[in-house]
Specification:
The complex is a heterodimer.
Chain A: H1 2-28, H2 47-56, H3 65-74, E1 77-82, H4 88-99, E2 112-117, H5 120-133, E3 142-146, E4 149-151, E5 158-162, H6 163-172, E6 179-184, H7 192-207, E7 212-217, H8 222-228, E8 234-237, E9 244-247, H9 256-270, E10 275-279, H10 283-299, E11 307-312, H11 318-321, E12 340-345, E13 358-363, E14 366-373, E15 378-385, H12 388-396, E16 404-408, H13 412-417, H14 433-441, H15 458-470, H16 482-488, H17 494-502, H18 509-520
Parallel strand pairs in A: 1-7, 1-8, 2-5, 2-6, 3-5, 6-7, 9-16, 10-12, 10-13, 11-12, 13-16
Antiparallel strand pairs in A: 3-4, 14-15
Chain B: H1 2-24, H2 26-38, H3 69-76, H4 108-132, H5 134-146
Classes of the chains: A alpha/beta, B mainly alpha.
Enzyme class (chain A): hydrolase
Function (chain A): May be involved in pre-mRNA splicing.
GO cellular component, one term (chain A): spliceosomal complex
Amino acid sequence: MGTERKRKVSLFDVVDDSAAKKLNGGLNGGNSMTASINKWNGKPYSQRFYDILEKRKTLPVWHQKEEFLQALKSNQTLILVGETGSGKTTQIPQFVLDAVEVETADKRRKYMIGCTQPRRVAAMSVSRRVAEEMDVVIGEEVGYSIRFEDCTSARTVLKYLTDGMLLREAMADPLLERYKVIILDEAHERTLATDVLFGLLKEVLKNRPDLKLVVMSATLEAEKFQGYFFGAPLMKVPGRLHPVEIFYTQDPERDYLEAAIRTVVQIHTCEPPGDILVFLTGEEEIEDACRKITKEIGNMGDQVGPVKPVPLYSTLPPAMQQKIFEPAPPPVVEGGPPGRKIVVSTNIAETSLTIDGIVYVIDPGFAKQKVYNPRVRVESLLVSPISKASAHQRSGRAGRTQPGKCFRLYTEKSFHNDLQPQTYPEILRSNLANTVLTLKKLGIDDLVHFDFMDPPAPETLMRALEVLNYLGALDDDGNMTRLGEIMSEFPLDPQMGKMLVVSPEFNCSNEILSISAMLSGTISC
Amino acid sequence: MDDRWFNSRPDMRMRDRRQQEMEEADEASVLEDLTEDFRLPINHRPTENIDLENVEQASLDTQLTSSNIGFRLLQKMGWKGKGLGKNEQGITEPIKSGMRDPKLGIGKQEEDDFFTAEENIQRRKLDIELEETEELAKKREVCHLHF
């Protein structure tokens, strides 16, 4: 499997490389002064590098480069708030790289800058983009590391990785000694792994004065981060947003799906051109909505322009996901009413994916959320009202390319009274059995006073300790057993980890391995 | 009387049909009976071979107690019954998830609840009125019997 992955990566590189060479060769005559050498790989910079550099320099974050580097130099921890579109995820790690010494005494290895991402897709796509910007081959100086795929080398100095992956690295390297700077990106999402890293890094920073931490967030909850991280300085980077007008309904809706479709039709018939983004909760609902939109608009005949509903959810095959970037359909007859693209998405389009051209956002105010109740030991995915912060993010999606409009399918009173200010961090809504195993492995024995930013309910921890004790990972005094240590090595639920570890005793490791693989992999084509 | 005669006809027809259905479904019903044997009513409590005295039932409202090994392990780590965290400032109750009608928009349930609550007040008022006229009601019943 490893070689297969590697081959895929190198295929990508070859294509990219030849494209870059072509550009370079074609323009070499006219631009003979490209004598500058890329300090990372010793090769001359390609023309493409300069083209991208010009674009990079227009990103809002570039205006504060010096200010940022100054702050980084004089502080161990730094908090950076930047709305989506400020360029923080791609540029800040490169700024850091320019300012930090990465050479080690051991010539074979270099210190690294690590930048965490909550999602695997983001880690992959951002690192590819940054490799291109730095004019290096992905997997060499710039790489990524996600579960089941490590695309880095001994030469890697900038590594994008999922937050869960950094946590796993900490299990082998508790002081994260390979890193010079750690950047926790998308901290506002408050994923389980990011929250655990918060507490862990606070400890690591005390023991490693030379390590620096940059926490990047898209929302103003950053002030809470500031209090938590020893009052670290806060830097704000403006996003690139146009004004968004917000509309509420007069009365609460009896059926939000029906209301969303009605709003799509209204926008399509009454508003000037511009694509629509509708937020719904899941695959079934989204596919259903797409069908209904096609039908409703179809019934209106050629009075109105054509529409192209595009579904978007995480289990959709990547090729289908790409459809969101296709342009709106042309008018049916020349000079007729213009067409419109209608993206119907889960909250994946809320922060992690950017779709240009969206002018209208429809927000029914719901998303699927994980909830865990330790009393009945049930973890469920429920459709629940979003937070005010989420609603704000959603409306912001309408103002990426031009002034936009956001239609909230609830009353203004509901917005103020019924939506909570922030979504509960994942750590308060999850089964923590796996997390407790990881923390134990990291040598944290006092889980009661561990410095969580938002400590989970005691009963959630009790259930985690209970199941780990039942599985034999913890003894009756709460100490980790040998079995527990082996189990913690697997990035799996403790139950499945145990199943794997003990399967040889029952002569079925082969079968159990297949079953575990099937149960833990996500379906994608 | 005429009414009753007419009414009885559909009854007859219905009975016929039911009988026919029963005959047709005879084989199926044998199977059904079999499955029925294995099906337990939802509120069934096992009584044999089980000591129900010491069984705890999980419920959203019941806190875990010291009979739970996790409870005791947490105590061993120094938990004193308050929240977790550096300053024991954490939440003490698990996050609850509200049940809701899958279609209703944000705020609709609240609006409905509000109106239902209003209705309840109205109904309560009516109940009070009824209480006051209980004797009158009795009288009415008596009158009804006479006619």
